Amino acid sequence: MFSRRSTSASLPSQSFWGKFKGKKTDRDSEYRDKQSQMALARQRLLTLAYDEMETVRVLPQSFTELEAVAREWAKPPPDAVFCLRVPTEFASLHASVCLTHRLVSGPYIYLTGEDSYQIAIMGVQGLRVEIVSDAPPPPDEPPPPPVTEMPATFNLELSPGQQIALETTVASADDVDMARMEDGTVVDGMFWGKLSIIHTDNTHTVDFTGTRMNNPDITPELLIDSKVMGKLASASRPSPAKCHLIILAPAQQYCDVILTVNPLWSLSMTWPPAENVGDHKHKYFLRVHPGGALEHFESEMVVTSLYYEAVPDPAMVDSNDFIAPRNGFAMPFRDFVSHLMVVLDQLGMSLHARTTFINNNLHAFSAHRNIAYRFLSPTKIANAIDISVTADPCVFTRLFLIFRGISDDDLGLFAGAGEKEANSHNWRETVGWSENSKDTSLFRVLETSVWEIT
């Protein structure tokens, strides 16, 4: 279906003021041509990747300039192996055809000179170049100096009305940093636990075991065992809806993806991290490639899909109301997986996409002896989380599966809504599937979501 939420950045080409034109001189025309060329040049960006590090630069005009930029950033030793390659999904289509038998090795095009570089950048607005070298990656900023010693104060109540303060200095064994863990996590905050002080003969020790408090405003009198708190929170909290968003574009282009979340829902996780722009909206600024690669500039990550989890308000979740014989179907687990594969095939998903969808959720499915399920309509999905993109036209396909486990007794309630009835149901009409979702010349968005109602 074509989205009404899509917007276009284009402006009307004919206007009242366009009818008044002054005389153009050759110098004016030349100046405007140079301005246009410079504007286009600024849009061509280079993403350099080395090991786990990336940087964005202006795309050089020649292979010599590219190599100089790469060497200046990576700073390899003179005798180190150094070569440049481009993932095939980022290169131009012309490069993939022309260089197939000469410079392509697996999923990469290796740049060996000016000819291969010019072919690789032909017709693309940006390029990703990976550095292959045995030299160490560019150094990060130097870490802060380790904390090996710090003052410590213990305010203790020995008995009601009898208090004492112990002031001492805590030193690190073997000069280990006490402020940070090995992964860089800072050790600070307020901790709740047990302090043990022992004075026995020649043994004098102080030992503390505790848990960091997420909310320092909670007084110790209100605290109970963290394991009990975790179990209570898990039992009362509804499970999140897990959503994957894939974007397929006919050509490389920049776009914004905006998720508008209903106040009764909240995003508990996004990856790559989405920008919270307020008013329950979260935005991604991306560069989309025809091969399905998505460049997220804020996190400098390249992914094939956006992932986010949405959690509903617990007061609105009623499992019996969301999936019932009047709007869903039920069957034993042993029949559900093969049935779901058939349904996903009818909804246009490829064999790879269907297999990945099943594998990612098989553990949750197998936890139940019987499963009741349904797919939501596009209107109901948009009421919870609406999606808009700055591309026009845009074809949306949103598949939102909700399911819950049921007992053998409850399975009898679905006597007229079993596997036989589910096989004959028109799921394409339910989800609003369109033939345009297969049109490679259109900008397409595919979202697959799964929500287990507990």
**Strand order in the sheet with the most strands:** 13-18-11-23-22-20-19
> In angstroms, what separates the terminal alpha carbons?
31 Å
* Main sheet attributes: strand count, strand direction, barrel closure: 7 strands, mixed
Q: Proportion of β residues? A: 35-45%
Helix amount: 10-25%
The poorly predicted ranges are: 6-24
Task: Give the oligomer, counting copies of the same chain as homo and different chains as hetero.
Answer: single chain
Keywords:
alpha+beta; 454 residues; 12 helices; single chain; 23 strands; flat
Task: Give an overview in words.
- There is one protein chain.
- The protein is 24% helix and 35% strand.
- It has 12 helices and 23 strands.
- It is α+β, with helices and mostly antiparallel strands.
- The strands form 5 sheets. A 7-stranded mixed sheet has the order 13-18-11-23-22-20-19, sandwiched between helices. It has a 6-stranded mixed sheet with strand order 2-1-6-3-5-4. Strands 12, 14, 15, 16, 17 and 21 form a 6-stranded antiparallel sheet that branches.
